[in-house]
Amino acid sequence: MPTNQNNLLASIAEEVTQCRHKLHQNPATSYEEVFASNLIAEKLTEWGIEFERGWAETGIVATIHGQETSSGKSVGFRGDIDALDITESSGVTHASCVPGKMHACGHDGHTSILLGTAKYLSETRNFNGKVHLFFQPAEEGGGGAYRMIEEGLFDKYPVESVYAIHNWPYAPRGFVGIKGGPIMASSDEIFITITGKGGHAAMPHECIDPIVIASEIVLSLQTIVGRTIDPAESSVISITNFNAGTGATNIIPTDVKLEGTVRTFNNKVRDTVEKRIREIVEGIAHAHGAKGTLEYIRNYDPTINTPEQASLCADIARTLFGVESVHTEFAPSMGAEDFGAMLQKKPGCYTIFGQGEPQDPDSPHNFGLHHPRYDFNDKLIPSVISYFSAITEKMLPL
Ligand SMILES: [Zn+2]
Ligand SMILES: [Zn+2]
């Protein structure tokens, strides 16, 4: 990169790092990210960048036109803007000023990176086409990406491909993880009700005991992962709530409610898991003369990178950060990410940027995501701005 571009990058990184600290001090959760939304709009206005507010309440889409637009093509970058219901104890000078709320997943960093990318691309414009920057609310369970898509995001902004990153405290700074295929899991919720026949605990022959039936179901559900799904595929079924009884020791209750989560890395496995859970719940309950029902709620889709875009991104990252920094073989995370919704609609790539500082064991950058002592590592800001800009120039060549 020429020196004048390096200087530009450094000055932009400095400016958006200050935005990052302001965002960190003023966190808000799903669809209430008014402070972030106003700050983004203020900066884009100051820099003369076109944008549209009102996507999924607090979301914003910014558009930057290349030096040429004759290609008719565009690419999209997504940054999430929401925080979490966590009380911060990081001790950093820019710690949260909002009781009980915290940017503990680094979305303040992702937002600032997207702002920096907007500024950098609007100053350089070394591309032919358009870039759309999706400032997305409500990643942490609120499904902001789904909502923007439902509101017509890709009809109005029909990008060829879409990109996002996540900071990764579990890997040292300098690690860049890029791979084709699944990188984050789907996250679904299950709600099971077993209805038997309640009665006196000393007269079980007069009852249909839903606790015994539900126990059998909990154990049998584990055979789906072990016996039905291909061992080369990954999946998790966890029952996390088992609710029954009145507190009395001499009453067999009428019903039991089970709740849990299902994680998979592709939709075929997901379909199989849902079908088998239903068969086990209904079948075992029926075998004992009870009734079993399943409500299966599909939340986030798995985040699946398209091989072509992942490979192009890995080449770009090798050029920018060095061959040794780029890792294409690593285990996907069982966590979920609603950027997966965008990758169900468009080709693209979700990249992991290590942010740990192992030489400084007390660094807040080493604490895991959603930990009260976590803090985003500002050193990632210029790296990811240059990565997003390089993707733009590669995908939309002049
Ligand atoms: Zn998170
Ligand atoms: Zn996150």
Total separate domains = 2
What would the average pLDDT be, to the nearest integer?
97
Assign the structural class, choosing from mainly alpha, mainly beta, alpha/beta, alpha+beta, or little secondary structure.
Answer: alpha/beta
CATH third-level topology of the largest domain: Aminopeptidase
Q: Report how far the terminal alpha carbons are from each other.
A: 17 Å
Structure characteristics:
binds zinc ion, Alpha-Beta Plaits, eight-stranded mixed beta sheet, four-stranded antiparallel beta sheet, elongated, Aminopeptidase, alpha/beta, 398 residues
Structure explained in plain terms:
- Strand 3, helix 3 and strand 4 form a beta-alpha-beta unit.
- The model has no long low-confidence stretch (mean pLDDT 97).
- The protein is of the alpha/beta class and 398 residues long.
- It is built from ten helices and 16 strands.
- Helices cover 36% and strands 26% of the residues.
- It has two domains: 277 residues, 3-Layer(aba) Sandwich (Aminopeptidase), CATH 3.40.630.10; 114 residues, Alpha-Beta Plaits.
- It is elongated, with a radius of gyration of 24 Å.
- The protein binds zinc ion (ZN) (2 copies).
- The site of one zinc ion (ZN) has 4 residues, from loops.
